Amino acid sequence: MPTWRPLTPNDIAGLMQVANETHPDLPERPEVFINRVSLFPAGCLALEDEDGGQLCGYAISHPIRPRCPPALDSVLVEIPADADHYYIHDVAILPRLRGRGLAAECVARLLSGAARYPVAALVSVYGTEAFWGRFGFNPVVMGEDLAGKLREYGEDAVYLERVMDRLD
Question: Under the GO molecular function aspect, what terms does this record hold (predicted)?
């Protein structure tokens, strides 16, 4: 069974193969992923196949300011000090491994890491809104700035948020 582990800069070539297969209409440069791993390694996961050799999925996540996701294919200078929402940039798994609960396992790990943030957010693409709804994510009413940013993600892009359970 494939297993999730921390993503490292050495995984970027394999990540790009997965990204190119799973997101052909939403290309991002390797520098974007290297940037996220260097800025927030705790939010980056690799799915490694049973043999421990091939990357077959990945997840990228990091804090953002409320409703300010980064533009597609953009390199960040830093994670803002006032970033208090947790953004799931991408969860990608090769088609041959879908339906095994690997995405749900990944999302659970990401949400566990996001527990200290009041809100987790993401841009749903490729009609995955129902999938994310299973984890408590719901569409939000968007202002024009956010709606404009989402256009580059495709016509079906929807901004979703999940209010995190807080145990204070």
Answer: acyltransferase activity, transferring groups other than amino-acyl groups
